[in-house]
Automatic annotation (TrEMBL):
Gene3D superfamilies: 3.30.70.20
Native species: Natronocalculus amylovorans
Keywords assigned: Electron transport, Iron, Iron-sulfur, Metal-binding, Transport
Residue intervals passing through the bilayer: none
GO molecular function: iron-sulfur cluster binding; metal ion binding
InterPro entries in the cross-refs: Fe-S_cluster_ET
The name this protein goes by in its record: Ferredoxin
Length: 80
């Protein structure tokens, strides 16, 4: 499972931080950070989700009020 985080779209509600510890508050920027991710395009961060964290990653994506988080299964199909 792969997660993509569009940091430019993020408005800093930090709901994702409450759902998955891999998201962290960045109070200086007023946005979340996706720890351990790779920036593949400007402000687009990608991370492979460990199997035991998929449930939390899905909740983090679902609670984002601006849909800045997308989740894809192993076949590349968007889950959230």
């Amino acid at each position: 499972m792969r997660i993509e985080f569009d940091r430019d779209t993020c408005i800093g509600m930090y709901q994702c931080v409450d759902e998955w510890a891999t998201f962290e508050k960045n109070m200086d920027d007023g946005k979340a950070d996706l720890a351990g991710s790779e920036e593949t395009e400007e402000d687009l961060f990608v991370l492979e989700v460990p199997e035991d964290e998929e449930f939390d990653a899905e909740f983090a994506a679902r609670v984002c009020p601006v849909d800045a988080i997308r989740l894809y299964d192993d076949d590349g199909e968007q889950v959230v």
